[in-house]
Amino acid sequence: MANPLYDNLIGKHATNDACFLRQPGKPTVSFRQFSERTSQVANLLLKHGLKPGDRVAVQASKTVEMVILYGATIQAGGVFLSLNTDYKKDEISYFIKDASPKIFVCDPQKRKELEQITGQVGSQVLTLDKNGQGSLQSQANILSKTFNTIDRRPDDLVALLYTSGTTGRSKGAMLTQNNLLSNARTLKNLWEINEDDILIHALPIFHTHGLFVALNTALLAGAEVTFLQKFEITEIIEAIRASTLLMGVPTFYTRLLADERLTAHLAKNMRLFISGSAPLLADTHEEFTRRTGHYILERYGMTETNMITSNPYNGERRPGTVGKPLPDVEIQINDTQTGRENADGEIGMIEVRGPNVFKGYWNMPDKTALELKENGFFITGDLGKLSSDGYLSIVGREKDLIISGGYNVYPKEIEDVLNELEKIDETAVFGISDNDFGERVVAAVVMAENESFDKSETEVFVNEKLARYKQPKEYFVLKSLPRNSMGKVQKNELRKQFSM
Ligand code: MCA
Ligand code: AMP
User: Fold this and answer.
1) Residue 351 CA, ligand 1 centroid: distance in Å
2) Which sign, positive or negative, has the C-alpha torsion 222, 226, 227, 230?
3) Is the pLDDT of residue 365 over 90?
4) Where in the chain is the domain with CATH 3.30.300.30?
5) What CA–CA distance (Å, rounded) separates 375 from 377?
6) Is the pTM of this model over 0.85?
7) What does the pLDDT read at residue 2?
8) Which of 165, 276, 370, 428 is most solvent-facing, going by the fewest CB within 10 Å?
9) Does ligand 1 come within 6 angstroms of the Cβ of 431?
């Protein structure tokens, strides 16, 4: 027996003294140190009673210690659940109650507020602050640097990542060892990631992109990671000078283009710029090439499926497309009404099958059955078409979803919160185009009789309930919402009316 993900990502580096994580102004962490500290934290998790399959949930700032916790959870046979640092109490309560983690790691400042909820599900609480300090660190520091890795099968769960849903309730995507390992191997090979690479990591580590696509491929390849707290333009410009690889969302690239320091000379050591999580405009792609001589490689994925398609490393990176299915992944473009496969070039529902596809939604067998078909194909909710030579273009979404700066926002969740306000009769949340975030969240509201809209009161209410990126950036007060003959709100009409 073995633990395939741990063995391939961390175990094999036990005697590797090369640099793994480099942070500006801080000591570097070698692969060997990373593996030793991972074992210390794995010992701590066991001490707190972690059993194989138990969840380890974390809501904490992006630190090296959090990456170590991820590694330790894998080594100890747990299931890693990472939560957006901006989630508010109500949002966190839902995840804790749904996932009932054995261990919950949070910022010391949040501990008190969340203790009532963790108490209800019997989670042990450890702390980790933005400097990597807290009880997690202090308790692990005194433990052994070796650990008997817990055996896991390829089909065992290793991560639970929540994605919002059209019904407003978030769904936990159950990811297995093999989902993550197969995808990391495929991407490493396709993008030729190797031990000479230096990857700029400025993404959050509570989503597939920053956690799995970036960290798993770097660990697998033994590549160095420039580990940045967040996207900060001057830090990124400096990092580009000394790195070979960047993984980002389209906002990274539009912000870089807006800065005159981005030149071909600056990017002369870079090997590859990768974009994903949201549509990259063909214009952005082309302007980036004019400025730097580099062709951004766009790829497409989902929390439930990891990466699905990619433009080629060697070959034409076609602007406005997300490339071809990964070598071990199948896609079908199916008619949205009949479910039958479309003829080449027709727009339809993108469905995907392969070792990358998740096991189902946590505690939601009905939702799983609706989206994961018996034949193994997962229904993405994205609409696309294939060119005659196999390049996929995403042309829309059947799901009511806004992607703002790479974060997914499901309007229903925001509408439910606004509808709690008695003064508001009804509301429609939708996305309009935004130069920085691609799309931005806005809301049309219809007030109850004799009520008037109070912007700051609404914002205070929403701010208590929802993470910042989900909050409407503008409100439009209407007499009524546009509806079709079936009574369905016409969000397309709203988008047309309010897009400027
Ligand atoms: C920050 N704000 C946002 C966003 N980010 N509002 C809407 N959408 C956002 N994405 C808020 C801030 O709280 C702040 O509010 C105001 O907007 C301005 O923030 P700013 O400082 O400009 O933003 P930032 O901190 O620089 O962040 C922008 C960002 C960041 C770098 C684009 O959002 C980001 O790192 N996004 C990446 C998300 C990601 O990793 N997605 C991958 C999901 P105020 O001023 O009011 O306080 S995984 C996935 O999608 C699949 C699997 C895939 O294919 O990868
Ligand atoms: P998430 O729920 O965070 O996993 O986001 C997955 C969704 O992001 C997909 O269903 C797509 O709608 C979108 N997405 C990811 N990559 C791309 C891309 N390159 N182009 C367009 N949309 C994308």
Assistant:
1) 27
2) negative
3) yes
4) 402-498
5) 6
6) yes
7) 95
8) 370
9) no
